[in-house]
Amino acid sequence: MTVRPDWSALKARVGNRLARHLGAVPFRLQNKVPMVSFTFDDPPKSSATVGAPILEEYKAQGTFYISGGLVDQWSGHWMGISADEIVGLHRGGHEIACHTFSHVRTPDLNAAALAAEIEKNRSYLLALDPSIRIENFAYPYGLGSLPHKRRLKQTFRSSRGIIPGANSGTIDLQYLKSTPLVNRHIDNDGIDRAFDETIATNGWLIFYSHDVEASPSRYGCTPGLLRHALEAASRRNIRILSVADALAAAGA
Length: 252
Prior knowledge:
Blueprint: H1 7-21, E1 26-28, E2 35-41, H2 45-57, E3 63-66, H3 83-91, E4 95-98, H4 111-128, E5 136-138, H5 146-153, E6 158-160, E7 170-172, E8 179-180, H6 188-200, E9 204-209, H7 223-235, E10 239-240, H8 243-249
Parallel strand pairs: 2-3, 2-9, 2-10, 3-4, 5-6, 8-9
Antiparallel strand pairs: 1-7
Helix pairs in contact: 2-7, 6-7
């Protein structure tokens, strides 16, 4: 049997690599102290019912990148966040941010299709609560697209990928680094090392996760891992800010 290459996946990987290294939207961070943000992608229900209350214990707000088409839907791994929970997060001070509506990869979209996905997501979220400010974007599956970076700049203050490391010095606002807060990728020692790097560079560490469960999916974290990260930040006096608030603190 002949195995046919997955040209779509190959194209997406190549496009992502080009987006990482080319077409930067450079910005010099001006934060006075190190910062950390906790983000959740296509958020499962547990990110709102378990994750957000843990953040609030530390007087912290997270950033939740919503795909409207996944709200209240079973993903195969978790039940998606509900519309009421999105509104509750917003009114509780958390940031509501944007994925594509259908959670489709940006390299698979032309300019018109990407614009339509973003507008559909924006319209959905504003219909839930017109006071929601949709300022930041995360690439679904972490796959960026070089042709779209400049277009996204016209709509969003930032776009976030899933390449780990602290953002420091001059960064690319349309390809922010982020580190998995995912049990199968990082442990307590790894979290501590990430914070040490952030302090050493006066940087901005962004964590991303999905579900927050005692037995998480391969894409999520336990409550204990989330608590360790929050406690580690607190012990080091690292400011815990949403993506929008961190950008403001950095002068963007």
